[in-house]
Amino acid sequence: RKEYVDLYVNYVFNESVQKPFQDFMQGFLRGCPAKSWKIFLPVELQVILQGHTTVDWHLLEKNVIYKQYKKSDQTTKDFWTVFHKLSEEKKKMFLAFLTGSDRIPAYQLECFRFTIADPQGKNPDELLPFASTCALIFFLPR
Fold first, then answer.
1. pLDDT bucket at 11, cuts 50 / 70 / 90
2. Which residues contact 58 (CB under 8 A, 6 or more apart)?
3. Of 107, 134, 96, 111, the residue nearest 51 (C-alpha)
4. How many CB atoms lie within 10 A of CB 116?
5. What is the per-residue pLDDT for 22?
6. What are the beta bridge partners of residue 139?
7. Could you tell me if 80 and 130 lie in one domain?
8. On the chain, which terminus has fewer CB atoms closer than 10 Å, C or N?
9. What stretch of H or E contains 62?
10. What pTM does this model have?
11. How many domains, the chain?
12. Does 64 share its domain with 128?
C-alpha cells in the first residue's frame, strides 16, 4: 500500500503537471531570463515579484513631497492624524488607491515617495480627494 500511495502522490504532484509546468517555465523564462534573477536570494526574488508586504507608515509619511502644501499645514496634519488611526487593511487600501497596488514596489522602502498636492479648486468643499496613480500624486483638497 505504501508503494501504491507513493507512486500515486508522485504521479499527481509531479508527473501529471510536468508538461504544463514546462510550458509555464518556458514562457516565464522568455519574459524573465534566468540569468537576470539567479543573483537573488529567494526572499529577495519574492520582494521583486510581489513587492513589500509590510510598510513602515511613519517612513512613508516622512518621505512625502508636498506641493502647494507644507508639512505644517493643518490639512496635512489632519490627514496624517486620521491616516495613522486607520487599520492596517485601510492603510493598504489607501496605498492601492494611490498606486494601484496595496504593496510598495520592490525597490527600497526608503526610496518610495509620493506627493500630496492641493488641486486648487475654486470651491474645495465640492472636491473629493483623488489620485494620479501614474505620477503618485494624492490630491487633497483643503
1. very high
2. 84
3. 107
4. 23
5. 92
6. 117, 130
7. yes
8. N
9. helix 57-62
10. 0.65
11. 2
12. yes
Q: Phi first, then psi: what are they for 24, rounded to 5°?
A: -60, -50
Residue (of 21, 91, 80, 98) closest to 54 by Cα position: 91
Kindly report, residue by residue over 100-138, the tens digit of the pLDDT.
Answer: 888 887 666 778 889 999 888 788 788 888 998 888 899
Domain enclosing residue 28, as ranges: 1-39
Of 108, 141, 138, nearest to 125 (Cα)? Answer: 141
Please name which of 107, 130, 108 lies closest in space to residue 119, comparing C-alpha atoms.
Answer: 130
Dihedral-angle region of residue 131 (phi above 0 means left; psi in -120 to 50 means alpha; beta otherwise): beta
- CATH code at position 70: 3.30.2410.10
Task: Answer for the pair 98, 131: CB distance below 8 angstroms, yes or no.
Answer: yes
Question: Is 111 a catalytic site residue?
Answer: no
Among residues 5, 34, 39, 134, which one is catalytic? 134
Asked whether 93 and 103 are in contact (CB, 8 A), the reply is: no
Q: Which residues contact 116 (CB under 8 A, 6 or more apart)?
A: 64, 65, 66, 67, 69, 76, 79, 137, 138, 140
Cα–Cα distance for residue pair 95/39, rounded to 1 Å: 30
Beta pairing partners, 137: 115, 132
